[in-house]
Amino acid sequence: MWLSFLIPFLILLSTFIVQGVHPFGSRMILTVDLYHQYAPFVAELRDKILSGDSLFYSWNVGLGTNFLAIFANYAASPLNLLILLFPQRLLSDGIMLIVCLRAGLTGLFFAMMLRDMDNRREDLFLSCFSAMYALCGWVLAYFWNIMWLDAVMLLPLVVLGLRRLMRDRKPLLYCISLFFVVLSNYYAAFFVCLFLVIYAPVAYAQITPRFRIGSLWSSFWRFCFYSALGGAMAAILVYPTWTALQQSSATGDAWPTDYSLTQNLFDFLGRFFVAGKPNIRDGMANVYCGVIILIFIPLFFLCRRIRLREKIGYGFIVAVLYFSFASKLLNFIWHGLHYPNQIPYREAFLMSFVLIIMAYKVLRNLKSFSIHEITLSLAVILAYIVLYEKFSVDGEKIWAIYLSAAFVILYAAALRLIMYKKAGLKTQKYFLAGLLIAELLIGTQVTVGTVAYNESFTNWDFYGKKSDEVTAFIDGREESGEDGTFIRAEVYPALISNQTSLYHVKGVSCFSSTADESFIQFMKSLGFHNNGINGVRNAGLTKVTASLMGIHYLIDINGTSTLPGGFARVEDTGNLTIFENTDALSVGYMVSPDVLDFVTINQNNPFNTTDKFLEALGTDGVYNPEVLLPGATENASMTSGNGESGYIYNIPTDAQAASIEFEPNARVKGERLYIYVQSTKAPNVILTTTDPATGKTTTSSQETRTMQIIDIGTYDPEADLKVKLSWSAASAGQVVVYCASLTDDSYGNMLQDLSQSELTVTSYDTTHLNGTIDVPADGVMLLTVAYDLGWTARVDGESAEIVSIGDALMGIKLSAGHHEIAMSYKPGGFDTGALVSAAAFTLLALLAAVPAVLEKRRKKRAAALVAKGTDSGVFVNESDSAPENSQNPLTSEQVPPADTSVPDPEDRDGDEEL
């Protein structure tokens, strides 16, 4: 059992050592969404636990968001508590250790399950096959996806608990392990629960020697009841999260109408090759779990010692899982009635789980096969590999094919030793086990290395760099009260989607599946870089939006980042380069009631939409459209354009490179200029200016992101500003360029109108915001906080309605006069979820306690009878009062016999040799 833990743990750890992961090198495993989402949220969780903050809410994500939903989706694994042992500077090291520990625990739990299926036999093969599951292709491709790995780890415990539930009438392990699956991640738990529905009949068939209506009904209702109870125990987290998800992009897909199959079986079998390519963005399912699987699965259906019912059951499950990969409809259902955004076939670990169990049964009955049957299976697999190289379309790399063929040949040699007894027992065992471990080691090294190469293992030393200094600066400013007690900031360079969460500062940035899609669309309309569904970043921030959203500081941790202009540098800030926005408005300020009718209707021109929003707030627009003088182009041609509707360029075909040049022809010297580029890919922006005094030409460049406002500096007609947009590989289609200017007068008028009546924040914490405001006339107090039904407000002690502004922000209607505002937050559905969980835990405790109490009373009565009989000289047989075949206190049925799916040792015909 220790080896079942150590083999996957050490193999994965050695892989990270080879890859130079810190502390064994200068790299880190934070890649893909672990880099942008999971690690920042784990850092936020760590900070909340250490500071005693509530898990309900966070100000550090997207102008404020429901953190309980983020916690449930990204960070609820109990193993994440180990991160408390690491300082934030070593966050990536802690996550790497947890990933390795989780792999080890996965092997251990799988071994516990296999042991139960095999009459408690333990040997080296138990450890090897457990490691095959712990290091299956799904785990190796998605080791960075720490939010789903608990489901993979706990699935064997759930199945072990299911067997005990049906066989021994012991529900505790099943109920508690299923609870932890649901608690750790509701989404991955959906895969497990759906799988259990189709696996439960197979489990019953395994443990029952013959079908009986009473036994079948007993197992059925127990399965349903304790499954519901396990899920209900997690309702405190799942129900409020489900409530929050109703407004997110994760719940808006329609049923598919195309029922065609998307892949063929011939190519799919190549996914079992050693070191097959890990598919992260797209491609077929990651189902690799050992080349030996290809050899043993045909033998499973030929094995005379495996009952027909098991062959039918496991064959049905494998077929369902395969068509779940090939069918768009089944794939849609498996992913919770949702089309996944990359990371395909997220339930693929279930296929590996089932196939390894089947292969293990073949190994334990290997002596029941003839040498001809095994030879035929080997020959078929080798023939398939040869044909795969010739006929596969976009299949595996050639070296993966050759490597797999080599292992098939080596396995053939090992099986020949076993069947012909050409070597001693230890030699047979160690040769075959050594091959299994060698394949796992090579497959893990190559697959993880491929992920590291394609998705990038970046340097560890910059992640969260200077986070303590950033947090200390903001805390110091709030404590001084010079800028108010509620300060927002943005951190640069913006290389991490949830950067404000990683640095624990209040800001705009957000990337979360639980984010309100309408909020993201609103921020998109103001010119912030976004993905249109669940992510927005500070790229595109301007003086206008920084002031509107109350961004007080722009913090550059490197001192060389490209920041939006118009802000004053703060001196003497130690190791940080900080710019201050002295015009930042409070988190709440009075606006016109017209804002209640504001609807975001034009997301293609953020200058126009921002002006419309400002007019709804009760002030004038600030942006003026400007004329562009076209210049040279490469692989692009201008078709039409003007300052109002934008300048339209056409890129005829997907080109290796394309560029567009133009010269802004603004109206007022000194005004700040911005451009906005509609394109599939973000351009590199090159600015060329000429010093009027010296005639010296200066060129600067900045990388940009799609759908963001780009600051190109202040306008000076004598500087001869020229702008070049370039793409190294542009996409065919239209590119639209808008240009607008911001004058000091229009910007000043906006500030004057909106700063007349601002909320003075007197106190706030994770779930409360209190302050006072003097209102000159009836209107609406705009709160630049993402709209959430979990917020409640009291004005002067009386309950007040919170209204939605633009379906994105919050507002409270206020009458003229002085008001005290008190706001508090609790996630919607939390009370209901907590009540359900409390009831479920109470019921489980009662169900667990009652049998123990009854047994204690039975023994007490038996002891009393014995004592009474002794006193009276009468012999009392204790077995009369407590029959050996006693009934379970929770049922009137007898406990069934143990699992008989594996023959007794004396009937194995030589299986003891393995």
What does this protein structure show overall?
The protein is of the alpha+beta class. Among the domains are: 153-243 and 832-914, no CATH class; 464-584, no CATH class; 623-742, Jelly Rolls (Sandwich), CATH 2.60.120. The strands form 7 sheets. Strands 10, 12, 13, 15, 18 and 20 form a 6-stranded antiparallel β-sheet that branches. It has a 5-stranded antiparallel β-sheet with strand order 11-14-19-16-17, with no helix packed on it. A 5-stranded antiparallel β-sheet has the order 21-22-28-24-25, with no helix packed on it. β24 (791-795) and β25 (798-800) form a beta hairpin. Mean pLDDT is 89; it is low at 872-913.
Quick recap of the structure?
The protein has 914 residues and is of the alpha+beta class. It is built from 27 helices and 28 strands.
